[in-house]
Amino acid sequence: MSSIDSDVVLLTCRGGGSRRRFPFHGIRPASRAARVPAVLAHVPAVELPPDPGRTDIDPVLAEHLPRRLIVAGQDSDLGAVLVRLLRTERLESVEVAYLPASRSSAAAAAWGLPTDPAAAAALALDGTATPVPLIRDDVGGVLVGRGEIRGLQGEAYCDNTLVLRGRARRLVVAPGPEGVGVLAGRGVRAATGRAVQVGCVSATAVVDGREHPRAVPRWTWYRHLVDWRLVRP
Q1: What is the distance between the alpha carbons of residues 231 and 89, in angstroms, rounded to a whole number?
Q2: Burial code of 169-183, b = ≥16 C-beta within 10 A, e = fewer?
Q3: Are 229 and 100 spatial neighbours (Cβ–Cβ below 8 Å)?
Q4: Which of 12, 92, 96, 150 could form a disulfide with 34 if both were Cys (CB 3.0 to 4.6 A apart)?
Q5: pLDDT exceeds 80 at position 31
Q6: Where in 78-211 does DSSP place strands (E)?
Q7: What are 92-121's pLDDT values in tens digits?
Q8: Please, what is the end-to-end C-alpha distance for the chain in angstroms?
């Protein structure tokens, strides 16, 4: 794959700045849109705000009809892009590569992705996309790296396995090739399955570093019927 492929688009979600979007005839090279590895210098790039939404992403998808999106940003930015691919029924037709803004990216850890910028950029251009589970939640979001239920008092199941009954400081889950997994913790049993369901006294949900705005009495993460196409080693 060449770095000048017109069907590859780089989405930079670097935070700060205005909500600027460049039309197809005026799209900028990555080297001018943000500081990115030199290997991506000639890839068409679109600057997006952090946690981009429908009005930010959908016009880009409609204008460029990309075969591959390279998402540069935080885990929550990657999740926001996947939500729009889900809503526009493009999960199976658009490949997604990820350039983590942080070396501590939970999504990179979950999927075995490089966090070194040069290595991540090389993989984004020349790597192969394979189907991996898309983990959704019951409030319309997706999970790409790490989910938490904090201050939990109640019960939690992974499929038919009871993983928690009682109190826990936090319950942590992560996506992976086998679905969604619960990480072992104090009072929490490890398990992996298609869904994790929590019922509790009001608790705090955190998805890919973003705290849900309201306390929740229940929460579910579950595997979507359609996978997404991730570029990975």
Answers
A1: 19
A2: ebbbbbbeeebbbbb
A3: no
A4: 12
A5: no
A6: 95-100, 128-132, 135-137, 142-143, 147-158, 161-176, 179-182, 191-193, 195-207, 210-211
A7: 999 999 999 999 999 999 999 999 999 999
A8: 15
Six-digit token pair at 61? 């998808």
d(CA 204, CA 143): 16
Alpha helices (H) along the chain? 30-33, 54-64, 75-87, 106-111, 117-126
Assess whether pLDDT exceeds 60 at residue 155. yes
Q: Which residue has the higher pLDDT, 178 or 35?
A: 178
Residue 23: pLDDT band (50, 70, 90) is very low
* CA–CA dist 44, 3 (Å, integer): 9
Is the dihedral angle over the CA atoms 221, 83, 96, 35 positive or is it negative? negative
- The answer to whether 224 and 134 are in contact (CB under 8 A) is yes
Note the pTM of the prediction, 2 decimals.
0.89
